[in-house]
Write a structure and sequence with these properties.
The complex is a heterodimer of chains A (about 350) and B (about 350). Chain A is mainly alpha-helical and about 350 residues long. Chain A has two domains: about 45-310, ABC transporter involved in vitamin B12 uptake, BtuC, CATH 1.10.3470; about 320-354. Chain A contains 16 helices and four strands. In chain A, strands 1-2 form a two-stranded antiparallel ribbon. A two-stranded antiparallel sheet of chain A has the order 3-4. In chain A, helix 5 runs parallel beside helix 7 and helix 5 packs across helix 12 (about 230-255). By secondary structure, chain B is mostly helical. Helix content of chain B is about 70%, strand content about 5%. Chain B has a two-stranded antiparallel ribbon with strand order 1-6. Chain B has a two-stranded antiparallel ribbon with strand order 2-5. A two-stranded antiparallel sheet of chain B has the order 3-4. In chain B, helix 2 packs antiparallel against helix 15 (about 320-350), helix 5 (about 85-100) runs antiparallel to helix 6 (about 105-130) and helix 13 crosses helix 14. The radius of gyration of chain B is 21 Å and the shape is globular. The chains are: A mainly alpha (about 350), B mainly alpha (about 350). At the A-B interface, helix 7, helix 13, helix 15 and helix 16 of A face helix 7, helix 13 and helix 15 of B.
Amino acid sequence: MKKRSINLSALTRSKITWAVIAELLILLVCFIIRPDFFSISIQPSTGVLYGSLIDIVNRSAEISIIAMGMTLAIALGGTDLSVGALVAVSGAMALKLMRWDVLEYVTPGDYTVKPFWMAILFPLITCTIMGLFNGFLIAKGGMQPFIATLILMVSGRGIAQILTNGKQFTTMYSPFRVIGQGNLGPIPMPIVIMTVVCVLMALFVRKTAFGTFVEAVGVNRSASRLSGISSDAVIMIVYSITGFLSGIAGLIYSSRIMSNDSNNAGINYEMDAILAVVIGGTAMTGGKFSLLGTLIGSIIIRTIVTFVYYFGIVAEATMAFKALIIAVVIVLQSEPVREYFARRSEKRASLKQG
Amino acid sequence: MEATGRKRQSLLSRIMNPKYIMVYATIGIFLIIYIFGAINYADSGFLTLRTLIISMFTENAYYGISAVGMTMVLITGGIDLSVGAVSSLTGMLIAYGVARMNIHPLVCLAFALVIGVGLGAIMGAAIHYLNVPPFIMTLTGMFLTRGVCSLISRESIEIDNELIDALAGFKIYLKWWNEDGEWAKIKPICYINFNLLLFIIMIIIGTILLQRTRFGRNVYAIGGNEQSAKLMGLPVARTKIIVYAFNGFCSVLAGFAYVLYVKSGWNLALQGGELEVITCAVIGGTLMTGGVGYMIGTLFGVLLKSAIPALITFNGNLLSWWGKIATGALLLLFIFIQRVVVLYSDRKKQE
């Protein structure tokens, strides 16, 4: 009896529990309004899985991938505001390489001017370097993460626009289309990429000591340095990872629309990614983090968006729904409320013990 | 009472106080950019540049009005991401009220003020009592406000109202002695509009609040160290709530100024405006970690931010996107100066 009640209190204290309950509640509402919300079928023409749930996971790919890096940045006690701008840079660069000489190759078609590996690799390298720049400012320059990444957030979209001379390029190159719209067997490609990224991140963080390093630096940077962790290197690696992942998200985004849109690509992604992390139970103050929680958080966000689209509510009003659900999660996760719950369950346990 | 016997400092040493160094940096960089522009485009440039900068300044005034509140929030060590959305909501309320329901614009403004101040106070209370990070709390406020904006209307609503037109058309022409020694409008003609006037009034109010009242000293104390402010018995909760409420007030006024500028309400207006506002405050010398910042710095921050697009327009060959990059570079420069100043003063303290 005693063991069970302790488990229960641990469960109420765990932040992921609340996130899962929230997600299930939203899905329940969806199910009540429309019972066919959960139906998943295979499209006969393409052989790809099809359904609202698949769509939710598919569309959450960009945010999930970015949020993986954001989790580490937040666990360090920082944030990365530049991810949305990096998404724009990555897309602009890929399209620029594929349509290198626009004056010569006027009509978009199934071709690429520069080799395809360049169009994939160069944006990723650029974004990684930009992430490293953020990390460098924070680690070596001693700046606040918020303000250090604000620099690239402000100027990143400008860089993306200048890369393409302020123009919007489109392409029809089919290998590029595979990234965002293709499929591996019955599974849409973004889900495959997202799964690979999540698994690799989880292995990297939990099977090596890196995750522990991140938590140690997040809790107390100088203490971790004294205990022999090179905190500067940890910070720079984390922000490089975030930049790299934003680059991947940018490729997926621009492959979905088969063009670059420097003004709108990745807009508000930084906010969504941070929210995903916070809903997933990682505290903004740094320290412990949970990649699984983040994944659930980003799926929650996408569920809300899909919910709103699905039931024909004004698309922009999504934000209000997001805000309401976030407000509930915030209140449930806030210290005073959790302390209250923990105290109550402890009291109960002691009462039962007599 | 004067037991400490502090000597009254001379005016010069008060002006040269190192705590103002960030403000001087802002003013200095503005002057450098201005002189650089004036020399580079000297043939007809100097006077035209002046007009261009002033017109950019009047166009950016609504950012400035919001930056007054933001400066105060940043000084307490917080942040408010909801300002752009609150301004947008104000525009939406005024536009909807005037165009669709025939309500007097001032009544709409009053209603918007109640909502803006109320939202600010609620966010401030949640930040203090629930211990939610300001970033997350105000992000929620931003999403909520934007969502409500879109629920009111998805299309831009035109405003056709006498009072709004009159306020938008209000101009004070700048005058100076011309070659004949007459007091006349300067050429090329430049003027100050209602928005800029409102901005300057808000700067003055902000300065008085920060420098001359007990409330202002509490704000600086909380920004310096919240824990010791609490131990000193300062009303931390009340001060923080008032600061966020005041910021809401400023955002609503900024929204009103924006309405005068565009004469319409749009649910996606001023998207990303919060970052412009924060940028204005930071290049005005406000420290993001809290405790340091002056309203006069913010005034020059807005001026500096207006000078960049003015110069780019003036050059004519550059894409306007360079403005964003230049703003980023400017931010970087200022943060570096701030770091150097902080390191220097730390070392001095240790000695």
